User: Fold this.
Amino acid sequence: MRSKRKICSTLVIVIFIFSLLTNTVLFGPVLIFSKANPGDINQSWHNETTLNVSVLHLEPRINWYDFQYNQSGTWVSRRNQQIDVNNSAEYRFIVNISSDQGWDDINYINITAWYDNGTESTTYNETLGGNLNLFLQYENTTGTAVYGVLWPSNEVAIGSLTDVVVNDPLGSPGNTECHNVSFTFIPGYQLRYAPGDGAWDNTINTTNDARSWNFNISVTDGGEGAAAPLTRWRTDEFGIYAYAEVASAGWPTITGNPGENATADNNISVIIRSNNNYSLSILVDDLIHTTNPAFTISNESIWVRGGDLDARMNFTGSGPVYFYGDDVNYHIAEDNGSNKITSDVEFRCDIPLGQQAGDYEATIRYHLKTET
Assistant:
C-alpha cells in the first residue's frame, strides 16, 4: 500500500513537471513569480514640467543708446565728448528699443538736442534758432515709418534712418519686438560751440555739464485705452569744437587819378563761418607797383567800411580795422544759417599827387576770431 502511494505521488509530480514544460513551450508561462520591494517607499520626485509666466510691460523700454561718429566706416561713441562741425563729419543717434506690445505700437521716436547756454534750466526750443536746436523724428502712425528733421531747416544735412530688427535677450520671445533705430546727420558749420568736457555725474542730475549740448531721446507707445500714450526717455549730452573760417572774399578794384579820392568799382562780399561770438578784422599791406617795386602807396591812404562799421576808416600802419567786434568785444553769433555774408564791404584809396602811373597791388588780410 505504501508502495502504491509512493508510485502515485511520483506520477503526479511527473505529470506536473510535464504539464509545466509543455505549457511554457507551447503557450507561454502559466505561473508568474514576483518579488515584493523591500522596505518603505516614502517619497518620489518628478521634475519634467515648468510653470511659465510672461511679464509684459505696457510701456516701451530703452535698453541702450549712444551718440556716435562715423570714423572711416566704423561708428565710435562721441557721447560726452566734443564733435566737429566741418559740414562733412557724419554723426548718428542710435537707440535700442523693446516693445512687449508689438512694434506697431511705437508711434514716435523723438530726438531733441539743444545748446544749454551755460545753464541746465534750459530745455528744447526755449532758445530759438537752428544753430541752437535740433529735432529729429521717427513717425510710425500710419504703418509706414517716416524720418525727418523738424528743426532746423538748413543748418544740418539730414542723413538716413536705419531700422534693424534684433533680439532682446531679456524679453519674451513670443511677444517682445526689439529694434535698433539710428538717425544720421551732418552738422553745419555754425552749430553753436560748446566746450563741455563731458564731466558726467549722474549723482547731480542727468545733464550737468555747463555750456554743452543736451539731448533727449523719447519713445512714445500709442497704447490702448487708459494706458495711452506711454513715453519713456533718456537724456545725455555732447560738446562741439569751435569753428572759424573766412570762406571767401571779393577782389576790389580801384581806378583813379593822382589827387583823387577814388572808390572801388563795386562793393565786395566776404563770407565767414563761426559757431560762436566772433570778431572780423581787415588789414591791407602797402600798395606796391607791379613792375617797379620802388613805387608804393602807403596803406594809410586806403580806407574801408562794411559790416558794423558804417563810417570809413583808414589803416594806420599795422593796425587792423574791425568790421565786427574788436580785440576785446565780440559780435553775437548767428542763431541761424551756415554762414555769414557781408556784401557791403567798400574800399577807397586817396591817390597821392604826383603818384607814378601804373598798376599797384597789396595783400588783403582778413582775420576772423571765434570766442572760446
In short: The radius of gyration is 43 Å. Residues 120 and 204 are 11 Å apart (CA to CA). The chain has one helix and 23 strands. The chain has a mean pLDDT of 87.
